[in-house]
Amino acid sequence: MATAPVNANVGNSTSDGGRVYGGQERDQRKSERRGQLIEAGLDLLGSADGDHALTVRGVCKQAGLATRYFYESFTDRDALTVAVYDHVVDRIATSTLDAVSNAGPGERDIVRAGVRNIVREVAEDPRQGRLMFSVAQSSAVLAQRRLDSSRLFAGLVTKQTVGYYEVAESPRLDLAAHFMVGGLAQTLTAWLNGTVTLPEEELVDTCTELLLSMAIHTR
């Protein structure tokens, strides 16, 4: 009886993405290493020392990777810093939009859901809070990224306001959105560094009431 030929390349074949190592394609392994470096970068950037703690050698040690793997994904320290910050902002923005979308129909329900999610994100993972709000972060790259994220969140506030109140976009609405985002950011900075000592739920409730009191200026 004839037997089926044995494929000598099983485990080392090519498929669309290229060569396979141990059942994983090269691109997948590269993506996983990039994720490890971003997570390690968040560990260091989110530490008490802030961006001063981040070095190429240090982040590779934290990730458990050889230094050569850093440069397959990032050109330098600043490129990793941007990737880490964008990763955190995307995570918080996405989860906040989900929270708002699943909130009750009332104005207070929606605002509170958004505020509570942001507070929860930075409280449950202090690294995120320190990265986004800590004064220990002093690099020009992070300063620019914080400005960009403020614009992003102000844009989300504007979009939600236009949809909920059925009003047109305007410079007045844009001003109010930036005021709200900036005020909340400063409040979270003070809360995280211990200047504001309210319990978490009281912080959420107070911020919700303050934002609702300002909402009249968006209409």
UniProtKB/TrEMBL annotation:
Q: Do you know which InterPro entries this protein is assigned to?
A: Homeodomain-like_sf, HTH-type_TetR-like_transc_reg, HTH_TetR
User: Which portions of the sequence form the region Disordered?
Assistant: 1-33
In Gene Ontology terms, what is one molecular function of this protein? transcription cis-regulatory region binding
Q: Which SUPFAM superfamilies match?
A: Homeodomain-like
Where in the chain is the DNA-binding region found? 55-74
Q: Could you tell me where the Basic and acidic residues compositional bias lies?
A: 24-33
- Coiled-coil residue windows: none
Question: Which keywords are on file for this protein?
Answer: DNA-binding
Q: Where is the HTH tetR-type domain?
A: 31-92
Q: Which PANTHER family match?
A: HTH-TYPE TRANSCRIPTIONAL REGULATOR RUTR, POSSIBLE TRANSCRIPTIONAL REGULATORY PROTEIN (PROBABLY TETR-FAMILY)
Output this protein's name: Putative TetR family transcriptional regulator
Q: Which organism is it from?
A: Rhodococcus wratislaviensis NBRC 100605
